[in-house]
Specification:
Length: about 350
């Protein structure tokens, strides 16, 4: 199969460390071929810093799969990267963005099967003038040509035990409540159901929709949003043929018996979704972007500056992201129209 395109992420973080660790465990986990988009000299320096004797091969994407068994393939992004562990510098943002741009270009042109992204440091990017809220929005813009509007994208955190989708994401709780609308829930639910069917191969995806308030509002005693916003969204999804139910009390949605009744949980705000999955699958959950015309996965953790360059970083989530990306790319069309 075509290789996966893996971005370097924040060079001063653990992305380079876990990439090297994942390649070393390629046979143990039967990893699909991937290539790292980075500065080859920077990667060699990080490997030496970690005391790892890993052969590196500077390649083109089309040569990556052949090189992968005997060397870590690296596609040069053309950015001299000088960041030291835990010390982002002027090259950090340039390298991270160049790698993302090249990864999307490679997958859109058919050179790569999917995009896997190492963690970025948003603060470092913002200081360099980056004006997107994060990875997902940037990827969506890169997925279209010219002035076409970017596709609506959805963040799903996936593990074998649980998949969750926050309807509102990286905003404060008060803003999340203001942003929550029936339309937002419906549009999110459509994309989730579509991609679970088309990419994950689930014939009839089952969605569990959480309420916003404690006890799903307790019949209006603890808030009216369930009756005025969430319930109408569930009704519309059901009317469109989507297996959705709710609003459900969030405090009883995530025990094993409840999880067995649905394929993904739609949650109303960030922590309502991320607390349960990080509790259940902290070391192997994967961030999957739904709604894009290509597969994109990422480890479900940050840059971990505090342990960058120490050799203590756990590659489990990156390994899971690589394996899931290969699985989704192998079972999905190259580009999937997303419902309006």
């Amino acid at each position: 199969m075509r290789p996966l395109a893996l971005t370097v992420g924040e060079s001063a973080g653990i992305g380079p460390d876990i990439t090297l660790a994942a390649w070393l465990r390629r046979e143990e986990f039967n990893l699909p071929p991937f290539y790292l988009l980075a500065d080859p000299r920077f990667v060699a320096a990080r490997a030496r810093h970690l005391g790892l004797d890993i052969p590196l091969a500077k390649v083109t994407p089309t040569a990556a799969a052949d090189a992968f068994p005997s060397a870590l393939p690296i596609v040069d992004i053309g950015v001299t990267t000088t960041a030291m562990p835990a010390q982002p510098d002027a090259s950090s943002a340039q390298a991270a963005l160049a790698a993302i741009r090249r990864a999307v270009a490679d997958v859109m042109s058919g050179k790569a099967a999917a995009v896997v992204t190492n963690p970025i440091a948003k603060g470092v990017l913002y200081q360099a003038g980056f004006d997107e809220p994060g990875h997902t929005e940037f990827l969506a813009k890169l997925a279209v040509a010219g002035d076409s509007p970017p596709p609506r994208s959805v963040m799903m955190l996936w593990s074998p035990e649980l998949a969750v989708v926050p309807v509102t994401i990286h905003v404060g709780l008060q803003q999340a409540i203001r942003q929550l609308t029936t339309r937002e829930i419906v549009e999110t639910g459509r994309i989730v159901a579509h991609d679970l069917k088309q990419r994950f191969g689930i014939a009839q995806p089952r969605l569990a929709v959480a309420g916003l308030n404690p006890h799903a509002g307790e019949g209006g005693a603890m808030g009216a949003e369930e009756e005025t916003i969430v319930a109408p969204a569930v009704a519309q999804l059901v009317a469109e043929g989507i297996d959705a139910r709710g609003p459900l009390p969030a405090d009883t949605m995530f025990h094993p018996q409840a999880r067995a009744t649905y394929d993904a949980a739609l949650c109303m705000y960030h922590d309502q979704a991320l607390i349960p999955i990080k509790t259940i699958a902290f070391d192997h959950a994967v961030n999957v972007t739904l709604g894009l015309p290509f597969v994109r996965t990422s480890p479900d953790h940050g840059t971990a500056f505090d342990i960058a360059g120490t050799g203590r970083a756990d590659a489990s989530s990156l390994i899971a992201a690589l394996r899931l990306a290969a699985r989704l790319a192998a079972t999905s069309p190259a580009a999937i129209p997303v419902p309006a």
